[in-house]
Amino acid sequence: MGSGKVTIVALLLCLSLGVIAEDPYLYYNWEVTYGTVAPLGVPQQGILINGQFPGPRINCTSNNNIVVNVWNKLDEPFLFTWNGVQHRKNSWQDGTPGTMCPIMPGKNFTYRFQVKDQIGSYYYFPSTALHRAAGGYGAINVHSRALIPVPFDNPADEYNVFVSDWYNKGHMTLKKILDGGRTIGRPDGIIINGKSAKVGEAKGPLFTMVAGKTYRYRFCNLGMRSSINVRFQGHPMKLVEIEGSHTVQNIYDSLDVHVGQCLSVLVTADQEPKDYYLVASSRFLKQELSSVAIIGYVDGKGPASPKLPASPPVNTEGIAWSMNQFRSFRWNLTASAARPNPQGSYHYGQINITRTIKIVNSKGQVGGKLRYGLNGISHTDIETPLKLVEYFGASDKAFKYDLMADEAPADPSKLTIAANVKNATFRNFVEIIFENHEKTIRTYHLDGYSFFAVAVEPGKWTPEKRKNYNLVDATSRNNIQVYPNSWAAIMLTFDNAGMWNLRSEMWEKSYLGEQLYFSVLSPSGSLRDEYNLPDNHPLCGIVQNMPLPAPYKA
Questions:
Q1: What is the mean pLDDT of residues 441-457?
Q2: PANTHER family this protein is in (predicted)?
Q3: What are phi and psi of 464, to 5 degrees?
Q4: Which helix (H) or strand (E) holds 61?
Q5: DSSP assignment of 425-476, as one string?
Q6: CB atoms within 10 A of CB 327
């Protein structure tokens, strides 16, 4: 009997006996502490997880249950968010200030979530204050289940590479600057996995490769504001995955990774066995910042050449170059993702749009202090997490829904500071347009979902621009860049009930208001659509002494 038939017989036997095996659990215990770090040679207070920066890697498989017990050993409140993990029916675990009370100093909280029907490259990071500028982040690698085909051979190994800009001022000083109504300005340098080096300075290889073998590199940009281009000396990259989507496997000499984004490439060790540089350089800054790391061949002889591969074009030409690279990213329609059916079996381009939300970002002054906003609303977190307020039926006591309209006002720079919560109809298919009138690039991330990034174009959006949409093989992802004086369009179905954060991944912008929350409520109030408040979920603010609402039922 073939192995497939054995599996089916075993499953039928389990069903007949009423036995259904739960998906595997992975357990982690993390201590979050301060520690001295000096990525650019200037000692400052960093945030470590179990003494590490970057933090421990979560290496899991689709549908695994993840349990992370977090001890906050800092002297301030703290939260982790799990960037890219969709938390189906479970925004309680999303780890944003709008969904959870923070973990207080000296306390612990145990996150429990499932990477349901997902594969891909993701990460976790602190969502509180300016902690992201101090580290506290790490990788979440979600692999396909054993029986699901992957459109490339298993690599010899896989490596996580975190690239980011870095500030020498430290997170506390950066927070004081923003709280004082000023910008944090340009970063001081670029780091690769928490370190920075110039040509000739790097000591020892970051990673090693065996000649003739192929390796998977998972790149993520955890910076505060800078897009970063990555490239290897003498080794082209084959793009295979972007944020949970298998891609058409194009070859690139260099790739732009914008803030908050992740992608995977395959690199084959087919050159002379010696050392080579991995280069990370900033994009769209007046003065380019860069860093290198050594990728060494096992038993290789000879140092890396001091001649680095050239940076991509800059200025207007550089934006056009980057935009064209985005257009080259295509969904692999025949590959399976987390499920055995091909990705292309979902025909998103044939679904009728029920709502268009056009969002214009802006900068303004409120009370003489710098703020950022979306459609004239500059978000501020309130005392009680929005999801808790909503669950306890106390929304009228804390915030108003839909202060932000679906269209931008005539002057979006006239900002109102308020909790920015928009209602979204459960299971509606929507189109969201981002329009950036400013001179700096933006990236936006949506928790709880992946969306189809159907277009990025220069100028302003009009309905006629829909003819330029990619309605066949746009990548399904969770982060989209919007270039200066340009627009981007995404499409998605609001099929995941909960309270979900849409934010600028430029943390200065997000911290000063360039974000919102979508409230997606199931009309049935059923466990089929959303989980109940977890027993261990802390209560705070106005709901702390309220009686618990009646739980959802199946």
A1: 98
A2: L-ASCORBATE OXIDASE HOMOLOG, MULTI-COPPER OXIDASE
A3: -65, -20
A4: strand 58-61
A5: ETT-EEEEEEEE-SSS-EEEEETT--EEEEEEEES---GGGGGG---SSPPE
A6: 13
